[in-house]
Structures are given as structure tokens and as C-alpha cells.
Predict the structure of 2-dehydro-3-deoxy-phosphogluconate aldolase.
Amino acid sequence: MQKKLAEVLEQAGVVPVLVIEKVEDALPLAEALVEGGLNVLEVTLRTEAALGAVEQIAKHLPDAHVGTGTVLNGDDLRRSVDAGASFMVSPGSTEQLLDAAAESDVPLLPGAANPSEVMRLLERGYRYQKFFPAEAAGGVPMLKSIGGPLAQVKFCPTGGIGPGNAADYLALSNVVCVGGSWMASAGLVREGNWAEITRLAKVASALK
């Protein structure tokens, strides 16, 4: 499962973290991001439209890898799999969530914010982890420090990352990709400004 997750994350560079309010926005938004060079997409389970959005993207955009974010429990995990998610992301982890993920064919990227949490996840076989909330948890200096004793773990930091600091994270040897929402803000999606989203996605894609 970690190999499958690695294949997705290592091609990503930047993962758009999407909050989709309307299912009808899902395809044009995803198409704009893919056109801009970002084809690994995380749709957070924070709205009623989220799972329908995942279904639409998974069905109509085979070149995109669409996953779910804010996966908090086994029920979220199972609904994500049913919707066609190719990966799942959690801001943290619980034993119940990890047990459910162990029974799934779809890989989970669980979250950690300090060395003890990283070590507990590593004990469960997770060599790829989300570092969240990245900036609040110590940012680049924290990840550099963790990389010394825990060099075998690769991270996707998310939280407080934007065009001004994404490259600093991507320059770290233990960062495989970063997550952020700046290229698909709520305002741009609400306006249907797909051209601007594509432009911002191209800029983000160049950070890889």
C-alpha cells in the first residue's frame, strides 16, 4: 500500500487541497488544475458535495488521481473508497482509523505533528505521512529536525503553505510533496474563474 501511495505522491509536487461546495464545480475545477499540470487532487470531506465531487472526477478524468481529505474515521474511509478515491488523507490518526485502513485496498496518508506521532505511525508501517498543521507545528525547521533521526519517513506538509514558502518545503530531502489551497481559492471557484486557476496551477506545478 505504501508503494501505491508513493507512486502518487512522488509525481505530485503540489497537491491542491479542495473544498468543493457544489458538485457541478467538480469537473471544471479538476480540469483546470490538470490543465495546469496538477493531477493529484485532494477533495476534503468538509461539505455535503465532497463525495459526489470525487465520484465525478474519478469517473470522467482518468488522468487525475483524486483522493479524499479530512478522513477522520472508518466510516469516512469506507465512503471514500465507495466514491472512487485513489488515496485518502487524514489530519491525524486514531487506532480505529488505522485498523480500518489496514483492511482497505486504498492507501491512507495519516497525519503527524511531532516525532512521537511520526514514530507511532512508522511502527504501523507508514513511511509516508502528512505533516499537519505544517507552519503551526514548526514548519521547515521542525521537518529538518525530524529528518535527522527519522530519515526513512517522507512527508506531505499541509497547513499554512502557499506560493511564498512551498519551495522551501520542497527543497527538504524528507518532503515528497506539499498540499495547499492557494491555486483554487473559494473565491475563484465561486466565480468559476477556471482560467486563473489554471494559471496558478501552472505556477505551482513549476515548483516541483
